[in-house]
Amino acid sequence: MLIIRGLSKTYNNGIQALQNVSLEIEPGIFGLLGPNGAGKSSLMRTLATLQDADSGSVQLDGVDLLSSPQVARQLLGYLPQDFGVYPHVSAEELLNQLAVFKGFVNPKERKEIVSQQLQLVNLYSQRQQKLGTFSGGMRQRFGIAQALLGSPKLIIVDEPTAGLDPTERIRFQNLLAEISQNRVLLLSTHIVEDVAELCPQMAILNQGKIVCSGSPKLLTNAL
Ligand code: ADP
Ligand code: ADP
């Protein structure tokens, strides 16, 4: 379970991106819905320990993430919005390199893990293709494979469906549903349908504050 308590962040320019954000999140997909500028990426980057919060705490299954980023990064996978790929590297090569960084030292084991990930996201047959040739949907699925290396208990996915066509979006949604078994998958989006279709639990963030949280039925009631 992911427990976020009193998270606040003000940037140097005075923008209060997060104001006392608290959430309790069970395993499964949790949708964080909010308009552009709401603070979603700020929250995601903070949870991924890529930027510091001014105050607050985050616990994943009892482990304090913010006080130990080293430990946190072993426990979580993060797919940033608009993540960059190396266009001249193949899917297999990049995942293999990432697996090295993640501490998989045995080449045989690494090959096995990389193959598993590529199969999971349905890119095994394209494993030798250069990433620069991937479509938007393939790229997002590859991003999931990256984030899943090492089987983290928490996956953070920032606005993943924004640029996808309808077919790719459904395919990607199915993948998210599949990988959210037995782990927390935090999905940020400004697309109401993503939350309504995918997320048993959700919250709405606006101007750095949680406006409401609960079941997506709240959305239907609110509209
Ligand atoms: P969202 O992901 O919901 O679009 P962000 O977390 O990116 O929201 O942004 C929240 C607010 O914080 C916005 O007003 C944005 O301009 C501002 N912001 C985001 N990152 C920074 C930063 N590094 N420095 C200053 N302001 C930032
Ligand atoms: P997102 O689209 O994910 O909300 P942004 O486009 O807001 O992200 O931000 C992209 C990058 O620019 C981030 O690293 C963020 O920290 C930085 N950034 C965003 N808004 C501001 C801002 N107002 N001042 C300074 N940096 C910003």
From TrEMBL:
Molecular function GO terms recorded: ATP binding; ATP hydrolysis activity
KW Transport (keyword) present: yes
ABC transporter domain ranges (all copies): 2-223
Keyword list, A-Z: ATP-binding, Nucleotide-binding, Transport
Keyword ATP-binding: yes
Highest taxon listed in the record's lineage: Bacteria
Recorded family membership: Belongs to the ABC transporter superfamily.
Protein's name in the database: ABC transporter family protein
Organism: Lyngbya aestuarii BL J
Taxonomic placement: Bacteria, Bacillati, Cyanobacteriota, Cyanophyceae, Oscillatoriophycideae
Portion held of the full protein: 1 to 223 of 300
